[in-house]
Amino acid sequence: MTSRGALYFAIMAVVLIGTGIFQSWNVAFGILMMCMISAIMALGVNIQWGYGGLLNFGVMGFTALGGLTAMLVSYPPVPEAWAAGGSGIMLSLLLLLATVAAVMVARRKVPAQYKTLTTVVLIIAGFFLIRVFYLPAVDRIEAVNPGETGFLGGLGLPIIISWVLGGLVAAGAAWLIGKVALGLRADYLAIATLGIAEIIIAILKYEDWLTRGVKNVTGLPRPAPPQTEVMLAHWFVSINDFFGMDETRAAIALALKVIYVVLFLIVLVTIFWFSERALKSPWGRMMRAIRDNRDAAAAMGKNVTHRHLQVFVLGCAVVGVAGAMLTTLDGQLTPTTYIPLRYTFLIWVMVILGGSGNNWGAVLGGFIIWFVWVQSEPFGHWFMANVTMAMSEDNWLRNHLISGAVYMRYVLMGLILLTVLRFAPSGLIPERSKHSS
Amino acid sequence: MSYLAATHMTCGYGGANIIEDCSITVERGEVAVVVGPNGAGKSTAMKAIFGMLNLTEGSVLLDGQDITHLPPQDRVPKGMAMVPQNRNVFVLMTVQENLEMGAFIREDNIAPTMEQVYELFPVLYEKRYQLAGELSGGQRQQVAVGRALMTQPKLLMLDEPTAGVSPIVMDDLFDRIIEVARTGIAILMVEQNARQALEIADQGFVLVQGQNRFTDTGEALLANAEVRRSFLGG
Amino acid sequence: MDILNAFAMFANFVLIPATAYGAQLALGALGVTLIFGILRFANFAHGELMSFGAMATILATWGLQGMGVSIHPLPTALLALPVGILAAITVALLSDRFVYRFYRHNRASPITFAMASIGLMFLLAGLIRFIIGPQHQHFADGERFLISAFEFRELTGLSQGIAIRQTQVITFVVALVVMAALFWFLQKTKSGKAMRAYSDNEDLSLLSGINPDRVVMIAWMITAALAATAATLYGLDKVYQPFIFLQMLLPIFAATILGGIGQPVGAILGAFVVAYSEVMVTYAFRQVVGLLGPADWVPDSMLQLMSTNYKFAVSFIILVVVLLVRPTGIIRGKVIER
């Protein structure tokens, strides 16, 4: 990292500390945690875009898969639902696998002229066969206490396991998607991944037996003891008596946040370290060679499609980890909150601003953009309230401006992206060896 | 003073010079041919003359007027027309539309010129409503030349017009090019088929490594023993 | 009689709505395909451009309603549409002047263009929500039905009615007129031919003296006009809500690629294929089939391939299949590098 990069990080630290002092430490830590998650997502996108030149506009989908995994790992199973429809769902899954296997075998064995026909017939047959078991099972599961559960639940394991599993699930999905979509020209890949992400979100939203859909899954267990539990503990009560109620409560709340921060930091540092190692390794150099001149690299015998699949899977895995962490932090899975502007394109602004191809840049971009994104809301309110000071309280324009102020953050993000692209296309911390490699 | 006088041209891509101190001149009503081995900078010289590459040294004069710094599209109204080597027709448009597009900058009646082109290339008249992309290689070249003629150029530049066409079509195309020259148009042509091209050339330029090696009439070059040995295969 | 009833029901729930939706998609896809053909990039801000045009139309509609202007039984929005078109054109030309022109002159890669369009998408999305808010707006104030289901039943004596909403007819008629005008322009006028030439072969069009800035300007103007019209018609037919337009990008891109990039006819075909597939795959055919047989043979199943929730997924599946099977689209468009 250059001294200029160090300076940016120092400024960012000062700004966060300033937020702690002038707003509240709770807010500052809240922002810091989201900054770290954003940084991890930006690292994931940077692996794909900065290392490999892949345009993945499906970040949201992989974030959601991570979130789904967090819920599935941590939420206790719902035995009644399993009894009602578990077997049907499992049978459907087996049939799905069987269909896929049959199609793959058929595509290898069947003579060329019947290939398409056989594939289509197999897919249609599989589709209808699966429905026979799937639909009734879904109906039965969703009928089980719909107000409280109405879904299969999860495994009831510690949620922190999902930080690894979420990455694996996202990686698996990325492998499947990459097999199909990679090899498309960059902007077509972008369109394809945008669509895939929408499908993933649609599944999360509407497959109630799996996710409760729009009814959300709340109350996921946390990796750290919840505040109320701490407050009832004996040692807490005794400290409480000693220091006084309010101060201790605030201190405990903060301490819990610190636990999160430390956990997130471990993940961030680990992923960062591996990313940097990979970037500097012969593998990283080869990736950049492919990115800069795909044809030349292919002519030199590099298996471009295979390498692209590698970075795509790795990048998505990192995004999946971040997605699991995000859901852990929220303590709930709310499928409707996944929107592309926030979970895909905002991450892209982070990467472009920070400097594509540079991991320090991705982290810095994640921090800055998340900070600006969050703080622009109160700032917008304050700004509009001041601008419209002269107007009366019930002036429609005043109310309109104040209520609309929150959307100026989109405008701000657009302006940042356009400005960086135009005037500093290599970002705040540019890629180091752009010209020497 | 020659109609086109491109003198002492030096230029290239990214620092390395492809052509150096290269000079090419064409007279009205004459055919000038640039030949030379692969990588001699023939096509680069053409691009430089048409302004698709910026010269680091040298100048391009058209009819005595300095056009060295004019962008390509502004050279078209000055009377220059170019037929590129590849992708030289609008494949998704009909033959007639291709010709119309050639005459895009003209405000006057283009029908007489189009008639002339159809007279020169009768097969194009038959296929005027067909998409240019559906024509054979030789016919495409005719469309390409016809499109360039529609601007009523005073200088017609052709970059390897016979690349990839059969010898019969090539002879035919060369005949037409001589016909065009007889109407008073200056023609500058880069050719791979050096011998046949020099046969119709009033003036020939042999380029080697971006520099003029021989400059003489086509006849003289064909007679020159060294030219024959080195560039015409004996 | 039952076949007629089944057809009436099918027409009422599938054919007519899908045709209207297809026409709306087609107008959107035409714009995307024009920009794809002329500027050679996927314009992710197209949805927001549509949204902006519709928003301006709605604001103008409110203004007209406030002044008491009405063209009843037609919706006031039709009178306000020129305002929306002008607004969209202004946005498109401004964005070209201050964003895209720079990259065009530098011959930047399509990815850079696409990324810049993301920036504009953010910018416009923010402005739209700031100006009109994120909530949905109904602004169709004309006569609701051209013929209601009840009237149709009275008229024909069928048990199933076909309701034809006025907005559906307006959508179809306007789309037809606009498309005819566009094709006349592209096929018959000098500027239109220059646009096709530029899309076909940029270098050769420069050699012919075609002014690229002018071609690009006209392309943006047409695109913006189509976008504003499409979004206004969609809003009249269903509802206007800002977030819909980012989602609409998918079927629009699907239609564009399905039809062949840079191919206007293809974009229209693609749009109708996408629209019919979306509606048919997610429609429950139970009752239609029930009408075709004896009274009690109605099957238990809904005869619905996919839940309506997956409407957008259908367009995406079409997109993927096209990219894999025939990347050039129905009508051979620009080849997609693989």
The oligomeric status of these chains comes to heterotrimer
How many β strands of chain A by DSSP?
0
- Using only C-alpha atoms, the radius of gyration of chain C works out to 21 Å
Largest interface: A-C, 44 and 49 residues
Ordered list of secondary-structure elements with their pairings:
The complex is a heterotrimer of chains A (437), B (234) and C (338).
Chain A: H1 3-22, H2 25-51, H3 59-74, H4 79-109, H5 112-143, H6 161-181, H7 186-206, H8 208-211, H9 227-232, H10 234-243, H11 245-280, H12 282-292, H13 294-299, H14 304-330, H15 340-354, H16 359-387, H17 396-404, H18 408-423
Helix pairs in contact in A: 1-2, 1-16, 2-11, 2-14, 2-15, 2-16, 3-6, 3-7, 3-14, 3-15, 4-5, 6-14, 10-11, 11-12, 15-16, 15-18, 16-17, 16-18
Chain B: E1 4-13, E2 16-26, E3 31-35, H1 42-50, E4 57-62, E5 65-66, H2 72-75, E6 80-83, H3 95-102, H4 111-120, H5 122-126, H6 137-149, E7 155-159, H7 167-182, E8 186-190, H8 194-200, E9 203-208, E10 211-216, H9 218-223, H10 225-231
Parallel strand pairs in B: 3-8, 3-9, 6-7, 7-8
Antiparallel strand pairs in B: 1-2, 1-4, 4-5, 9-10
Helix pairs in contact in B: 3-6
Chain C: H1 2-39, H2 46-66, H3 76-105, H4 110-132, E1 145-147, H5 149-156, E2 164-165, H6 166-188, H7 190-200, H8 202-207, H9 212-237, H10 244-259, H11 264-281, H12 286-292, H13 311-325
Antiparallel strand pairs in C: 1-2
Helix pairs in contact in C: 1-6, 1-7, 1-9, 1-10, 1-11, 1-12, 2-3, 2-4, 2-9, 2-10, 3-4, 3-9, 6-7, 6-9, 7-9, 10-11, 10-13, 11-13
Question: Can you walk me through this structure?
Answer:
The complex is a heterotrimer of chains A (437), B (234) and C (338). Chain A has 437 residues and is mainly alpha-helical. Helix content of chain A is 77%, strand content 0%. Chain A is globular. Chain A starts with a helix and ends in a 14-residue tail after the last helix. Chain B is an alpha/beta fold and 234 residues long. Chain B has two domains: 142 residues, 3-Layer(aba) Sandwich (Rossmann fold); 68 residues, no CATH class. Chain B is built from ten helices and ten strands. Chain B has a six-stranded mixed β-sheet with strand order 6-7-8-3-9-10, with helices on both faces. Chain B has a four-stranded antiparallel β-sheet with strand order 2-1-4-5, with helices on one face. Chain B is globular and about 45 Å long. Classes of the chains: A mainly alpha (437), B alpha/beta (234), C mainly alpha (338). Chains B and C meet through helix 3 of B and helix 7 and helix 8 of C.
